[in-house]
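Residues pack. One example:


***
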Amino acid sequence: MPILPRLRNAFRHLRDAAPADRDLDLELRAHVEMLEQEKIDGGLSPEAARREALFETGGIEQVKASVREVRAGAFLASVLQDLRYGARTLARTPAFTLAAIIALALGIGASTAIFSVVNAVLLRPLPYRDPGSLAVLLHKGRNPVSAPNFRDWQRESRSFAAMGAAQGWQPNLMGGQEPERIEAVRMTSEILPMLGVSPFLGRVFAPNEDEAGKDHEVVLSHALWRRKFGADRGVVGRAISLDGEPYTVVGVMPPEFRFPPFWQTGAQLWAPLALDRNPSRDGNSLRVFARLKPGVPNAGAQAEITGLTGRLEKEFPGTNRDVFVRSLHETVVGRVRPALLVLLAAVGFLLLIACGNVAHMLLARSAARQKEVAVRTAIGASRGRLIRQFLTESLLLALSGGAAGLLLALAATRVIVSIRPLGLPAIDTLSLDVRVLAFSLVVSISTGVAFGLAPALASARRDLSESLREGERGSTEGRGRHRLRSILVGSEFALALILLVAAGLMIRTFVALRAVDPGFDPRHVLSMVVSVSGSPSVEPGRRGVFYPGVLDRVRALPGVRSASFINHLPLAGDIWGFPFAVEGRPAPPRGDAPTAAYRVVLPGYFQTMGLPLRRGRDIASADRLGTPGVVVVNEWLANRFWPGEDAIGKRIALGGGGESPPDWLTVIGVVKNAARSDWTAPADSEIYVPLLQSPRYLETRFFAVEYLTLVVATSGDPAAAAGSVRNAVHSIDPAVTISDVQTMEHAVGQANAQPRFYLMLLSAFAAVAILLAAVGIYGVMSYVVSRRAHEMGIRMALGARRADLFRLVVGQGMAVALAGAAAGLAGALVLTRLMSGLLYKVPPTDVATFAGVTAVLIGVALAATWIPARRATRIDPMTALRAD
């Protein structure tokens, strides 16, 4: 039986078959039609003959498979044809193609760069074994705890598989031409095994190596191993000198290892911590890390710790309050997550603006391709095939823009890493990894579909008669297409306004931050940390000679106006909070005593820092051991504890007044409030005690009291004086270590580094957004003028004035811009509330910012419509009427 009748019978059988088989109806019908056409054209082709043989030997299933194979091959061939045709079409309009790729590259590149930051900081898991079960236990979620409390929690808790503690350390690494101050961490032996990170070389600390007398082993970071030891694999077992004491290197960690990830983030070596050196429950200096047992949630561990600390608080009042269990990841990223999400949303808006810009460019371009679409439709192209062709061209544009955007993102990430904004953890691990590349690819494809779908549908929806009507002389563009283009441009303006408002709020915030009075004058002041650890000057009795001797040498240098020492520099150092008691007032319960930031200074500090002395006198050289104790307090403390009184002559006792008898300090001066570690933190109690009256700093052997910060006021550039000041210090003792050399203006700049980083990014996004929006409305109005030239010629021939045409074009453009601005204002009123955590002394609905941004955007829209409107007034009526 010939194949055609048998296929027809099979086709009739399929019409009555189960629904699962009916999907082949169209395939078989098409196959029958193809074979019949070949019969008419002169016989079966070799391929048809092969199918006939298949049918004879294998039946209908073989024919089905053959049909599927041919259709798949035909589909692939048509896709390749669409790609080739789309590439040729885009190549014929290089100006359009380049403009579209640039717009997309800006949007996709910015999105990829910010996502790479989000990926490195928020999404990438911490580089430890099972990081989700790691937790921290701190007072109020951020403050350190005491060693006895840690031991009690470690011994009595049942929710944790392991628990360890760590303490900051900054030893001097001896050897080489000059000692180097190293950021380091001492930790109990449980921590490194708990993290589950294998060392690159050697081993980590063994159990019980954190006992006193067994704590002189160190594990090096990979970076320190390469920098100081030349990547020598024989370093394991070698002795090194830290603060003049021998330590044995037992291991080197892998390159990616960073710990702790939220505090002491620059640690370059780790050593065991002997806890019996600090048995007091008031000595809070430890960060506690723990791993939850399998199946134990954070909430369960928190409930247990709350009960445990409640019992300890009754036994030791004031020592176990507000202890929180937080996941390690949340501790690391909790403070920066809102800001990064705001940036991600902002860059998403920028990407949408870029898509809208390219979409109305494609709409304008598709109008010029009406004849092409009509011809393809006339010869049988289906609507689906037209849509696929237009989407293919859109995807080619999007992928090209994505490739260019990747290059922009790579450059942007390098800039971000070089800036290294403070407070962004893991920023040094920023890279375009597989997840970022996948994000860029998905964004590119999604944007290609997003901005190409509307023009594709609009073009494929047109019929031949419509194309002919709109192509006639005197016609104007279809209302639907014009409305769509207006919606796109209006949306661009709405999104641009939201971005501009966000940038404006950050500018207002930054101006408010710059207006904060730090209390001191940072201009022309140089600072450097001077550590006597490991040097001859560290010996008790010698520090009291060394520090004044350094000041004498430095003050004698040319261009130096004054110099002094302080233990912790404002904005760039630690804050030690000491409890104190006020004479004549009842002693508060333990744990409820007021605390003050504890500053140790030498004479001349207030003069050097430009910190005004409001009342009383400065600390003098005569205030030494053996003389009555004195103290200088800030205005906030004086006004709080002696309101309406003169604080001079009043007395306080450090330690809460629990000593017998108390060591009373007489207030001799009151100074202006100064900024502390946080630039925007409100003023709080602060005390300044003479270094030469402090046995702790003159005679105690402990790394935290073996360094001071030298501040030098100069008459010229303070950075230029750094070399001579360093030489003056080393002329007294060449073995001391000098580090952290910076100007106070740099320290102030670092205090505002994070808001400046956010301002820089949001301002860049807003600038690009307003540029794209301006280009969008300019392009639309230019296109409208060119398409309506015939109409405008008729208007002028009928008596319309040039001013009327000018107002017509400007009015149409401004109507779109104003509608977009209104929508943008409504969106900004809602979305900017998410920025409240980033703002300082500026409400998220600041009227001045909203009004100013709206005025700027309307001005940009007016300027963008001005040129097309002027072009409309120069149309020659006779030329326009003759033109087809």
